[in-house]
Amino acid sequence: MTSRAIAVLLGSLSGVLQAQTLLFHEDFESGAASSLAANGWTWIGNDPTFIAGPVSAHAAGRESPDLSVPPISTAHMPLLFHPLPYDPNVYYQVIASLYADAPFGSIAVANAGTGWLTPSGLSMSGVSWSDGSWATPVEFPALPIGPPGVTGEQFGILLTIGGSATMSHVYFDDLKVVTYPVGQATFAGKVFLDGPFMPGTGQMSTALGALSLLPLTEPYSALGYPQIGGGGESATADLLATDIVDWMRLELRSQADPTQVIATRQVLLARNGSLLTPFGTSPIVFDAPAGNYHVVVQHRNHLGILSANALDLEDAAFAGPQHDFSNAAFPVWGVNARKVVVGGMALWAGDASSDHMVKYAGAANDRDGILLAIGGTVPTATLTGQYRLEDVNLDGIVKYAGAANDRDVVLQTIGGTLPTSTRVEQLP
């Protein structure tokens, strides 16, 4: 069987500029129907069942009705429901892990979405999954369906089972609902960093997250990066420990004047290069109207890059494909602004002083910063357990000598032979 996403996207509505908001989160960790009821969940049919989830210890499930005894006693599919505040001027993005278990080769469908529950039925838009394995996670942004105008109507999150099989089950885990306003610039992107890049896998190391070294709050404000609409973004420790490489920074710049910063966001970088919100979702929404913008991608100890062309950043209802800065065919500002890596391009590593250039020798060079970080005298010493600019390969260890040291990364970035060479970040 295959998975499918079903979208119901309505016309554009006016809204106010605001940040993305985590409206609702449920991990079903209680593992008990009584706890779900106490937290505002209601359901039709038997009590929810629970199994071990792919993200947390428990996932909640629904069982299909007994189709051998028609008619079904309710107009609803067996469902779980939790009320949410309704706002016609925002998108409701549903993110969930879904599993469908259909015995005997029959079909069961797990449905998760937002919509309306009424005494006579329900209407919803969301995602569906009908494969016999976990989908983690599935995302779906949509405008809410308008009120049906029925007495007793309630807006909220709906988890249902579809299909036609008796004794089928579907399960849900790590459910999130994120809202963001209509009409704002929306970006989905991908980028690689050279420092943690692993040629053998074509992905990046997540050592900083695995070692619990990533800060809960973005580091760029403290480093002096100016903010326009962004700054202070934070994430949970659980998310940072799961496939996250590091914090990144995005800027939208004017189509007419790419030196002018319009809006900023601090985001997370996944091991596969995807850029995510601090909630672990995509796309990323800026405090700027939908339109055409140059996009800057920056990292605290790598050299940033700028899209050579202005990108069409539409409202989320019309958001285009992922903008892949790791693709050699994707044009960026300047000459040799990225490093060639296996399968693509990456940001140059080695800016241990975060001054937007890489130097191996001379005043304010990055090599000396690495030596000073480990004590300044014994080159074989190391520094561990800290989140440091000098850790340019992002392995959680500042090293000046020996295997996988950070000094060599600086030398390789400037060319590998002439120590007085430099490499400068190419941003206008």
What is Rg?
Answer: 24 Å
Strand content: 35-45%
Instruction: Tell me the CATH architecture of the largest domain.
Output: Sandwich
Write down how many β-strands occur, each being a DSSP E stretch of 2 or more residues: 30
**Strand count, sense and closure of the main sheet?**
6 strands, antiparallel
Q: Specify the overall morphology.
A: elongated
Distance between the termini: 50 Å
Q: Which class best fits the helix and strand makeup?
A: mainly beta
> What is the fourth-level CATH superfamily of the largest domain?
Galactose-binding domain-like
Record the strand order, biggest sheet. Answer: 1-9-8-11-6-3
Global mean pLDDT:
87
Uncertain spans: 1-18, 66-76
How many domains is the backbone divided into?
Answer: 3
Total DSSP helices: 5
> CATH topology of the largest domain, anyone?
Jelly Rolls
CATH class of the largest domain: Mainly Beta
Helix content class: under 10%
